[in-house]
């Protein structure tokens, strides 16, 4: 399984629409609205490099409102912590 982190710059007035469209693409597991140099971060998980091209170059990059992308390929995962558990830290029922 290959994991890519895709930093996405969008036109400022369409961030939510772009996020929803990208989140619906096959191979995209998560999309986050973030602060910093990118508007959105997408996590892409696919079986091979050809699928990366399908999802990123032929998918995310062609979504209306996407201005630029930068792709970071993950080499190794150091933590298998469940994200839901991480976000629940400190929250009371």
Automatic annotation (TrEMBL):
Name of the encoding gene: trpD
Protein name: Anthranilate phosphoribosyltransferase
Enzyme kind, highest EC tier: transferase
Pfam families: AsnC_trans_reg (PF01037)
Highest taxon in the source lineage: Bacteria
Keyword Glycosyltransferase: yes
Residue ranges of domain Transcription regulator AsnC/Lrp ligand binding in the record: 6-76
InterPro entries per record: Dimeric_a/b-barrel, Tscrpt_reg_AsnC/Lrp_C
Enzyme Commission number(s) of this protein: 2.4.2.18
MF terms in GO: anthranilate phosphoribosyltransferase activity; sequence-specific DNA binding
An example Gene Ontology biological process: response to amino acid
GO cellular component terms, semicolon-separated: cytosol
Keywords: Glycosyltransferase, Transferase
């Amino acid at each position: 399984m290959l994991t890519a982190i895709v930093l996405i710059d969008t036109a400022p007035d369409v961030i939510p629409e772009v996020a929803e469209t990208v989140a619906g693409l096959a191979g995209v597991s998560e999309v986050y609205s973030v602060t910093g140099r990118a508007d959105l971060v997408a996590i892409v998980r696919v079986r091979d490099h050809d699928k990366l091209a399908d999802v990123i170059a032929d998918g995310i990059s062609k979504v209306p409102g996407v201005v630029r992308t930068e792709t970071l390929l993950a080499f190794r995962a150091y933590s298998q912590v469940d994200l839901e558990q991480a976000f629940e830290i400190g929250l009371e029922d």
